[in-house]
TrEMBL record:
Function: Removes the pyruvyl group from chorismate, with concomitant aromatization of the ring, to provide 4-hydroxybenzoate (4HB) for the ubiquinone pathway.
GO molecular function: chorismate lyase activity
Residues noted as binding substrate in the record, renumbered to the chain: 61, 99, 164
Catalytic activity line of the entry: chorismate = 4-hydroxybenzoate + pyruvate
Gene symbol of the encoding locus: ubiC
EC assignment: 4.1.3.40
Residues that span the membrane, as ranges: none
Residues spanning the signal sequence: none
Broad class of enzyme this protein falls into: lyase
Pathway: Cofactor biosynthesis; ubiquinone biosynthesis
Subcellular location(s) per record: Cytoplasm
Provenance organism: Roseateles flavus
Keyword terms of this UniProt record: Cytoplasm, Lyase, Pyruvate, Ubiquinone biosynthesis
Entry's family note: Belongs to the UbiC family.
Protein name as annotated: Probable chorismate pyruvate-lyase
Amino acid sequence: MGIASRHSLRDWLCAPGSLSRRLARLGQRFEVQVLRQGVTPLRAAERQALGLPRRGCTVVREVLLRVDGQPLVWARSALHQSSLAGPWKALKGLGSRPLAHLLYEDPRIQRSELQPRRLARFGHTRRQMARQWLAATGELPPAQMLWSRNSVFRRGGAPLRVMELFVPAVARFKPGKRPR
């Protein structure tokens, strides 16, 4: 399979609502594997998306979303550390539950427009994802795994950025439809 294009992944990159729920419909078992959750310095893209100053730390949660054991999405959520004591404090106890449990069950949470983005093949985010993917699966991620979607959720004025990076093979499935 060649490089997954924005066109081939369009249905996934633009699908509204919960990605976790859509993925869960593809198989018998959906799971969230937490790869890392902790405090780290702000990245430029996150700082810009969150509208934050140059200083401060962000709380990051990086996970693999798996269907029937197969990893299909690497996701990274980030928020300013101060928001963890306020509107997003429930994130601390989320564990291996999907972030969607917080994002779609509270009508006060608003989501920005989805923004598809192609990662740089050798950029920081791609390298970090590849290291985590290898450690979690024992295999390198697909070289064509370059397309993500990004959005910002707001609760009580506090932003939370979510980036979801797709395995190219997910393009074979329609979001929310069980494969035949």
